[in-house]
Amino acid sequence: MNRLLLAAYPEPYRSRQGQEVLACLTEAYPGRSWPPPQEVAALVRAGVQARARAVVDDTARTWWLDGIHLTALVLAALALVPYLQDVWHWALHIDPGRNAIAFPFSGWYPWAQGAGGRTRLLPYGLLPLVCLIALLRGRAWVALPAAAVMIYAGATFNSTTLFGDEGKSGLSYYGLGAPIDARDLVLSGTLCAACAVLALCRPSRLRRRSYRWLAPVVLAMFIAGSLHIISVSPAFQRGLFVLEAVALLSAWVATAATGDHRWLIPVAGVAIVRTQAIVVRPDAFMQSFPDLVVLILLIAPLPALAFTAQRRQGQALAE
Questions:
Q1: What phi, psi does 173 have (nearest 5°)?
Q2: How far does Cα 288 stand from its chain's mean position?
Q3: Is the pTM above the cut of 0.90?
Q4: Do the record's keywords include Transmembrane (predicted)?
Q5: d(CA 172, CA 174)
Q6: Of 132-146, 165-179, 252-266, which gets the smallest average pLDDT?
Q7: Is 96 exposed, middle or buried (0-12, 13-18, 19+ CB in 10 A)?
């Protein structure tokens, strides 16, 4: 199990010092397959810092371009979350029956139509999924048309039959309280703008990540589709809240270790998109937290990250 902790470190570090770290853990905690929680937290923190330094040391990409790339990845994942169940069912030809997300199920084929539903060609969730996969591989020119179609689907929400009812009028993602679904043009518009910038700014310079990064997406689809956990389920919301908190902590650790501003860009992008969703549609906001608390939780990380970056840069200059 100790080897799982090494996944937090970049590959060059694992090749050079991986065996040494494992030997130290075995010697320090004999007979244990897993170190104490405080040691786990320290190792993961050090791994995040090592990855952040490796990213900053890679001068082939400017910090703002990498930040926009991260923003596009996060927004594509955010757009996919409400439709995990529908994409999983569609891909595996599973009839969700009564567990369909707030819309009548109409099968997997273009000519299939359920009671009260419209014929659809494809599930809407395929668009953010294609966008996410393309961005992971650094193919912004593939992600751009998918994001543009997302804008079209949202703008013609009540008139187009391309995606029918399925996967487009399902209940939306709430997380900290911001409902974001296909109708939210700010999300799809921001994603499309980020993809356009990436496609125009020498896409060959974009970071290409391994397909292994899709493993959490497949796992989320399996959980949502197989267990029929919808996006408004308390368990689903708590799980997403934990993931978001971990992501924010990782951004803070990376910023504190390097003083780089690139991780501020995705945090700012998500905060802007979700804050406007609360402001525009307060009636759709699930009152799991008071409105003011949610807005503070969304906005507070921005000045905190900026202050951390400036402080780290000041310390580096002093040294």
A1: -80, 135
A2: 21
A3: no
A4: yes
A5: 6
A6: 165-179
A7: middle
Number of H helices and E strands in the chain, helices first, is 13, 0
- Residue type for position 39: E
Q: What are phi and psi of 160, to 5 degrees?
A: -75, 150
Which tens digits make up the pLDDT trace of 42-61? Answer: 878 888 888 878 877 777 77
DSSP 34-91: S--HHHHHHHHHHHHHHHHHHHHH-TTS-HHHHHHHHHHHHHHHHHHGGGHHHHHHHH
Is residue 26 classed exposed, middle or buried when 0-12, 13-18 and 19+ CB atoms within 10 A define those classes? Answer: middle
Q: Which residue has the higher pLDDT, 5 or 73?
A: 73
The secondary structure element, H or E, covering residue 15 is helix 11-28
Secondary-structure percent of the chain, ordered helix, strand, coil, rounded to 5: 65, 0, 35
Query: In the numeric block, which tokens belong to residue 58?
Result: 């890679």
Contact predicate 173/82, CB 8 Å: yes
pLDDT in tens, 89-130: 778 877 666 655 544 555 555 444 555 555 566 778 889 999
Q: Do residues 267 and 261 lie in contact, with contact meaning Cβ atoms separated by under 8 Å?
A: no
Inter-residue contact 153 to 205 (CB < 8 Å): no
Q: Collapsing DSSP states into helix, strand and coil, what is residue 102?
A: coil
